[in-house]
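Design job #97: recover the sequence.
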């Protein structure tokens, strides 16, 4: 039997085991996927092998600190120095990051030329690179300059939140901050209203509950309904989670994503992330 795990702290909330185990069940694969509360990243490699794992997902707060235990990093994870998936190939651990694919799948059919990312943490990094891979012009704004250095050094346009140019319009505004966890807005309300008045898509990475960022986008849509103009498309982070899991499962099992997608989407619709 193959064994997989998701490592993080906290980890009890993770829906990954439900999604992955359902795929194994539906595809008749002899495998199990478990949650593992990781207290520290020390000796992770020994732990991985002593558990007899074939692969793993990595979530907060270890996406960066576990990179050093991999023998090779592939794809976009190399650009950003953060992984969310590890696959064992013989005695080697290969690190990947499928969050970017997970994000992009939500918008692949949209016509987006320029994007504004609010926040400069780990998820902003992966989103910035995946958007650039698709020739989308990326702007990043954050509340402090320290975390903007990475983006600046990689050739992205950056500014502090209070330097956002409000007469510019962005096709998509992405909230990649943790503000929604704290039930707050990433930038002052009137500034966000200004941005929303000129955008087509509002995307918040948060999932599982209402957030103030997307509530404000819905208010903008009420105004647009009255004016009979096109609504903002509103997207939360639930499908990003789904698609990163489809991509990770495809790497774990070496099976095409479209075969994984069918059962995983079936379970996703049942658990209503
Ligand atoms: P990080 O901690 O790496 O980065 C958080 C960023 O948000 C930092 O730039 C931080 O600013 C900024 N920030 C935090 N609080 C506020 C606030 N109140 N106002 C303005 N800016 C703020 O987090 P991640 O990038 O890993 O995750 C960000 C969010 O995305 C989380 O809510 C996470 O749950 C979600 N997420 C969702 C995924 C999905 O699959 N749907 C996948 C990954 C993440 P500073 O630089 O000043 O500290």
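Job complete. Output follows.
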């Amino acid at each position: 039997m193959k064994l997989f795990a998701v490592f993080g702290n906290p980890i009890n909330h993770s829906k990954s085991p439900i999604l992955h185990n359902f795929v194994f069940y539906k595809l008749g694969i002899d495998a199990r996927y478990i949650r593992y509360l990781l207290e520290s990243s020390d000796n992770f490699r020994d732990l991985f092998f002593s558990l007899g794992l074939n692969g793993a997902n990595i979530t907060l707060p270890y996406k960066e600190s576990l990179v050093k235990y991999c023998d090779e990093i592939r794809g976009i994870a190399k650009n950003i120095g953060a992984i969310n998936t590890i696959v064992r190939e013989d005695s080697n651990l290969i690190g990947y990051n499928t969050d970017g694919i997970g994000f992009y799948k939500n918008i692949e059919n949209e016509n987006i030329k320029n994007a504004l990312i609010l926040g400069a943490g780990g998820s902003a990094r992966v989103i910035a690179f995946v958007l650039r891979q698709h020739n989308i012009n990326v702007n990043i704004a954050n509340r402090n300059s320290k975390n903007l250095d990475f983006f600046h050094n990689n050739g992205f346009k950056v500014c502090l939140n209070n330097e956002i140019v409000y007469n510019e319009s962005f096709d998509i505004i992405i909230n990649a901050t943790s503000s929604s966890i704290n039930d707050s807005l990433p930038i002052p309300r009137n500034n966000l209203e200004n941005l929303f008045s000129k955008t087509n898509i509002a995307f918040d990475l948060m999932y599982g509950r209402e957030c103030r960022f997307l509530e404000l986008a819905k208010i903008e849509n009420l105004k647009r309904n009255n004016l009979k103009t096109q609504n903002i498309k509103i997207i939360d982070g639930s499908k990003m989670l789904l698609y990163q899991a489809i991509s990770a499962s495809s790497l774990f099992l070496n099976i095409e994503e479209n075969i994984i997608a069918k059962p995983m989407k079936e379970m996703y619709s049942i658990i209503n992330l």
